[in-house]
Specification:
3 strands; 2 domains; elongated; 54% helix; alpha+beta
């Protein structure tokens, strides 16, 4: 018998969770199919957001791409139908990705030779399996 992870056991335990798992599976299948139907440059920027009844909601990264995708909706509906997915409509929404400022560069810190030697001696005096000894040894090894 195959072992399942605790999350799979939890998700399969109730009716509402089972429906949620099935819906997520459908969305993943629709995302894969959408990726196959669209050109590469569009597929990378289009994400299946939801399936509400027979209406598929797709999020795109830009307004220009949304216009192109809206123009392609009739042919996409036909392509989905040929693949066995019957949809009434495809709604395209612009979802601007969340802005995250770039992480600041890591400041180089220098430790003197005498400090490194002292910390190395302290680490050597501690029990070998001590978490503090391991952390000190790693610090001395990486300190420049």
């Amino acid at each position: 018998m195959a072992s399942t992870s605790p999350i799979e056991t939890y998700l399969g335990s109730g009716d509402s969770l089972a429906r949620l798992q099935a819906h997520a599976g459908r969305l993943l299948r629709l995302q894969r199919l959408l990726g196959e139907l669209l050109p590469d440059y569009m597929a990378a920027a289009c994400k299946v957001a939801n399936l509400k009844g027979e209406d598929l909601v797709i999020h795109v990264e830009s307004a220009a791409l949304a216009v192109k995708l809206r123009q392609a909706v009739p042919s996409l509906l036909a392509d989905f139908a040929r693949a066995g997915v019957l949809l009434r409509d495809i709604k395209v929404k612009v979802a601007v990705p969340e802005y995250r400022p770039p992480t600041p560069p890591v400041e180089a810190r220098h430790v003197s030779d005498s400090t490194r030697a002292g910390l190395g001696a302290l680490a050597a005096s501690l029990p070998a399996d001590s978490p503090l000894a391991r952390a000190l040894k790693r610090f001395v090894r990486n300190a420049g």
